[in-house]
Amino acid sequence: MSNVLITGAARGIGYQLAKQYAEVGDRVYATYRNEATAGPLRELAQASGGALTLHHMDVGDSASVQACAAELADVPIDVLLNNAGVFGGLETQTFQNMDYDNWAFEFNVMAMGPFRVVQNFLPHVLAGEQRKIVTNTSQVAAHAYDHMIGYSYASAKAALNRLMTALATELADENVIVTLMHPGWVKTEMAGDVADIEPHESATGVRQVIAGLTQADSGKFLKWTGDIHPW
To answer: For a tag site, which of 147, 148, 170, 198 has the least CB within 10 Å?
Structure first.
């Protein structure tokens, strides 16, 4: 059994990851930001027999992250899965129409947020056996991605990638595996039905890749299929 902490677990990929980890017998600490959207996750927890518990944490707020880390102070974490994300919509993050407040919000949540989480939960990870930190990112963060992008979202994810590769280097002596994960273009509330795969397909692939991670994978940008994502 592994102890798994998942941020942004109330819906989409995070919900499916929490569900699947609990179903295979792992102990899941699922975090959520908004009580209004946490109903399905709460039902999942109630039906889990204690395998899954809910914990409030807003990764965009330092005090909230610190409080959650304190709440789980004695819990060793084998897999820390940064999944929480936001998206302000394409129409307000174009060259012609940029919502700078939303840009700052997305950057805070998706670049600074995972950094906060790692900073505060590193003692938990070091107390775990697997010492894996996996961060769900996006293909739009890569220079190799040649399609139209939302500037706010893409730049936040690109910054996230650089932060995590730097942490992979810094934490190498601690035998911590820090890996970036493109979970696929998933049919979530964020992407809609035009995306490629279902959340449960993404979560299954992500879990399989995480299970096989070794120190040699630290700093890599992987796909949910296990392939290397081009940068």
So the answer is: 147
- Can you list the positions of beta strands (E) in the chain? 3-6, 27-32, 52-56, 79-82, 132-136, 177-182, 221-223
Residue 228 resides in a domain: no
pLDDT for residue 191 is more than 70:
no
Q: Which residues pair with 222 in a beta bridge?
A: 181, 228
Nearest residue to 88 via CA among 77, 76, 98: 98
Angle (deg, nearest 10), helices 12-23 and 39-46: 0
For residues 81-108, average pLDDT: 86
Task: Say if pTM beats, i.e. exceeds, 0.90.
Answer: yes
For 75-95, what is the mean pLDDT? 86
State the CB neighbour count (10 A cutoff) for residue 45.
20
In a domain, residue 134? The reply is: yes
Q: How many domains does the chain have?
A: 1
